[in-house]
Amino acid sequence: MSLDQADPAALPATGPAPRKVGRRGGGAADRRVRGRRGGRWWTPWLFLAPALILSLYFKFIPMVNAVTMSFQEVQPYLGNRWVGTDNYSTVLQSHGFREAVWHTIVLAVGQTFGAMALGFALALLMEGQSRRLGFVRSAAFLPVVVPMAVVAELWRIMYHPTGDGMLNSILALAGMGPSGFINDPDTSMASIMVTGIWRGAPYDMMIFLAGLTSVDRGLYEAARVDGASRWQRVRHVTVPGLRSVFSILFILAAIRGLRVFTEVFLLTNGGPNGSTEVVMTLIYKLGLEQNRLGVGAAGAVLLFAATLILTIIVQLLRRRESK
Amino acid sequence: MSESTETALGLTESRSIGGRILKAVVYLLVLTMFAGPLLALLVGAFGDIKDPTQLSIVPSGFTLENFDIAFDQGVLKYLLNSFFVVGFGLLLQVSVSVLAGYALARKVFPGMTLAFVAILATLMLPEEILAIPLSVVLADLPVVHFNLIGTLAGMIVPLGAWGFSILVMTEFMKDVPRELEEAARIDGAGDFRIFAQIILPMCKPALGVIGVFGFTMIWDQYLLPLLVATDSSSYTLPLALRTLRIDPAVTPGVVMAASLLALLPSVIVFLFFQRSFVSGLSSGALKG
């Protein structure tokens, strides 16, 4: 999994945390605090130093650099030249970038909803406690822990565009195909989406399963007594009970979707004919292949802004909802 | 949780013959959908596959030839690079996280909120977005002026700044009872002894969570190694798969063999530590 998927996973979890920290400082705790202040004032900073230094070097300095570079023409050996907002207008006016933004949104939305819908269905089907279920669940979960690079190579071969390719022969059984999959501009986007859903759905399934354990069982029985059908039970008991899980998964998946890179890079690298170019593959090409670091940085800053805005909006919505 | 095991669909507790058949069909379908491609990979790695059209779930002979060729192509070297990166990366990540977690969970000090917010902020800054400036920083680290491009160290050091594990450790360390710490302090133990001999041993479950999570995350890394590696001598195995595939002399069977080697470690770790892994998933997503 891009258990890289793990790191945004911490985002919503951390919402209330800083407040907790603030609260602990004050009031009745003070006496106790003074009592256990064993070391010197700098002891905690000593413990924090590695984390802070590494974050400074590999997160904050690059972030500041991204912002400054985005206003400069970056010229190795010649010194950088300040160009104001030129890079931003270059990026925003370029047809390629707008296309890439559109592709990114389509992919993010498609994968998010596809994986959530499938994951929810799987979770409903596999809820329960028998041992055999545990086996099926673990097997279904495997795609998440397989490195993305392997997933991409595997699916490339499965997507082989001739009639006797693996997926095409399955399509043939259903009387369809053959499809060009990632080699055909009409289907390339959908193919990448399917791969993403295959890898994302089990992850969502696991989160839904964890959420399902907290749904009140009594409500199911009550619903049954009231003569509710299965579908009605899911609609009126399960879905409302999982509302917060849905919204959390949505944020995670949407943010992950905006910065999609590896699967596109490996499956199509933006092709065929630019039909799958996403923001990150474009930035990679601009910055590291064409050496237009300033323009690439401007694109990255815009992507960051979009992620930030999305996070803030969703956080605000959630806060309002919980009031 | 109550004794009742009623589920939303009521599918799993159905005992009628129809229900059982339905269950079996559903689970078989799920298995085919998600485990099927991986089975094809397994069959492909040990099979005689010269052409992408021969990929199938049905085994076609058994041979180790693919692995032989893969090793001739330097896969062992890439595998060792990957192990090196995951070993030292994980060591760094876990050490950084437990140290920072200790300060954030067990201490109250001026500037603490600031430190906490800084750690939180790192979560907002994933490599993908920072790729370009990160590669510039790695080529010339500010102040110390090291060039990490082309070195395995360049793939390892940035892994230390991973907010997720710091937050998991902080949350967990908050729950260690104060009394233990106070008793140790009265006995004259300093901060570092309290950290190493009291708090840390109590945090084994959390160490498991961040260890397993960190392992799978680092093993899956693609962009960071891609930014850092300059030639095949510093490729990690996931990175090398693409080079293998592009080589016209290499058959899909060989790519599958190398892929199998690239996925085994994280799958094994997952299967052995499922419990930690799943609790990491939910601690990441379900709090709040």
From TrEMBL, chain A:
Q: Which GO biological process categories is it annotated with?
A: transmembrane transport
InterPro entries from the UniProt entry: ABC_transporter_permease, MetI-like, MetI-like_sf
Membrane-crossing segments per the record: 41-61, 100-126, 138-159, 165-183, 240-258, 293-317
Q: Which GO terms describe its cellular component?
A: plasma membrane
Q: Can you say where in the cell this protein is located? A: Cell membrane
Indicate the segments forming the ABC transmembrane type-1 domain, all copies.
Answer: 101-314
Q: Which UniProt keywords apply?
A: Cell membrane, Membrane, Transmembrane, Transmembrane helix, Transport
Chain coiled-coil ranges:
none
Record keywords: Ligase included? no
**Name this polypeptide is given:** Sugar ABC transporter permease
Native organism is: Embleya scabrispora
From TrEMBL, chain B:
Any Pfam family the entry gives: BPD_transp_1
What are the entry keywords? Cell membrane, Membrane, Transmembrane, Transmembrane helix, Transport
Regions that span the bilayer? 24-46, 83-105, 112-138, 144-168, 206-229, 249-273
Q: How would you describe this protein's topology in the membrane?
A: Multi-pass membrane protein
**What is its subcellular localisation?**
Cell membrane
Q: What is its main location?
A: membrane
Q: Which SUPFAM superfamilies does the entry mention?
A: MetI-like
Q: Name one GO biological process term.
A: transmembrane transport
InterPro entries documented for this protein = MetI-like (IPR000515), MetI-like_sf (IPR035906)
Keyword Transmembrane helix annotated: yes
Give a Gene Ontology cellular component term annotated to this protein.
plasma membrane
Every ABC transmembrane type-1 domain range? 79-273
Q: Transcription regulation: is it a keyword of this entry?
A: no
**Gene3D superfamilies in the cross-refs:** MetI-like (1.10.3720.10)
Q: Which PANTHER family match?
A: ABC TRANSPORTER PERMEASE PROTEIN MG189-RELATED-RELATED, LACTOSE TRANSPORT SYSTEM PERMEASE PROTEIN LACG
Query: What family does this belong to?
Result: Belongs to the binding-protein-dependent transport system permease family.
This protein is called Sugar ABC transporter permease
Q: Which organism is it from?
A: Embleya scabrispora
